[in-house]
Design brief:
elongated; 2 helices; about 20% helix; 2,3-Dihydroxybiphenyl 1,2-Dioxygenase, domain 1; 8 strands; single chain; about 35% strand; Glyas_Bleomycin-R_OHBP_Dase; about 140 residues; 4-stranded mixed sheet; 2 domains; alpha/beta
């Protein structure tokens, strides 16, 4: 197997809801395992997600988990997940679902470089950038 680079998102206890949301946005196959399934002794974390993986028909893979027990959850502004390409309908559909219930910081619209681009933070606090490449000509 060749190497892959995938986003791995951390959540403060709502990884199940977030990953199910991304499954509705992108489709695909979602597999989740809890801390309890791997023998975590604390009943308070037994149903929390230790590892989740969503593989989509478009070839995307998104992974995520609830923050490990005892580790501080520290969201930051130093990471965004970027979606780009020339399939405008597909990308606009993702944008509509990801921004619904979230916060749009840059509306998805034509930018000075000619592409459509927007940035939003979804309802789980994850920042998404969408760029729709325009035909050159």
């Amino acid at each position: 197997m060749s190497s892959q680079l995938n986003p791995y998102l951390s959540f403060a206890g709502d990884a199940r809801q977030a990953m199910e949301f991304y499954e509705r946005v992108f489709g695909g196959t979602l597999v989740m395992n809890t801390y309890g399934e791997f023998g975590a002794p604390d009943p308070a974390t037994a149903d929390k997600i230790m590892h989740a993986k969503l593989d989509t028909a478009a070839g995307y893979t998104i992974m995520g988990a609830d923050n490990p027990p005892g580790e501080e959850f520290r969201p930051g502004n130093n990471l965004a997940v970027s979606l780009s390409g020339d399939d405008a309908d597909e990308l606009r559909g993702y944008w509509a679902k990801l921004s619904d219930g979230g916060t749009v910081s840059v509306p998805l619209e034509k930018q000075m470089w000619g592409d459509e681009f927007g940035t939003c933070q979804d309802r789980f606090g994850v920042t998404w950038m969408v760029n729709i490449t325009q035909p050159q000509g």
